[in-house]
Input
Amino acid sequence: MKVARFHAPGDLRIEDAPEPVAGPGEVKIRVRNCSTCGTDVKIYKHGHHHIDPPRVMGHEIAGEVVESAAPGWSAGDRVQVIAAIPCGRCAECRRGRMTVCPNQESMGYHYDGGFAEYMVVPAKVLAVDGLNRIPAGVGFAEASVAEPLACVLNGQELARVGPGDDVVVMGSGPIGCLHVRLARARGAARVFLADINPDRLAVAAALVRPDAAIHAEVEEQVAKLTDGRGADVVITAAAAGAAQEQAIRMAARQGRISFFGGLPKDNPIISCDSNLVHYRELTIVGANGSSPAHNARALELIATGAVPVADLITERLPLPDVLAAIDTVARGAAIKVTIEP
Ligand SMILES: [Zn+2]
Ligand SMILES: [Zn+2]
Output
């Protein structure tokens, strides 16, 4: 079979490999879709401290079971696979805080991922209910977007996005688009989408139709749109410290700020007027991936139509084109690019 294997930063190869075999408690799938995201770009360019190469990349995975050595699963089952694998046993997992499990492993990092024709779902994934049946009517490509949507869901739960909120989403990539749609599904009053790149913003805005698209002077624009109140929730879906600093200044009293996107490792310090947080009773939250339960609920949100994702998948490429796909993501030239191995 063909796989896309990471060997070193800048060195991702399409190779022939023997088909993997499902060991006890494992399931082998035919990968139908594995979607790409900014994380794949980061890994390709810089590697990752959790990846010991060579490693098959790809973590937004949907496919069909072809061989099962695990109870409850059989050939022909259509499945979606979690990306982040909590241990299920540590102090955080036992408290239900699976997104911050310190023993977390990931598909495409610790285990071979979905940029391959076939893949084995590790027993550890099954042990934490990390393999989900794809609901009827949901395609494989849509199901592969359940993983990023699960992360977005975790972020909006932590930021308590709810009815009546004015929400600002900073960053109009695929994650920003999912944030806009989920905020609407959760009853937000208005959702504003901001990006410093006007072209990317225009493409995204045409798809997800925010109440306003803001490409410059975001603080002034948000102040104007909210009669000076600020936004109830500001979500930064961009790896920019400046956006995080603006987010704190744009929040309304008792507003919530989600630092959804992380910052570059070598530049993670921002400045924050602590008195804004104090007197306005602001809440600043992080977001670290998603739990298995978030993945299951994301699939439901897609299946019920509460959060449509089909139209966000703007490019479908075969496995040999994975480098082109990563380049497209790096340039921000598409919303969601999916690989069909
Ligand atoms: Zn991803
Ligand atoms: Zn754990």
In short: Residues 37, 39, 59-60, 148 surround zinc ion (ligand 1) (CB under 6 Å). Residues 153 and 294 are 7 Å apart (CA to CA).
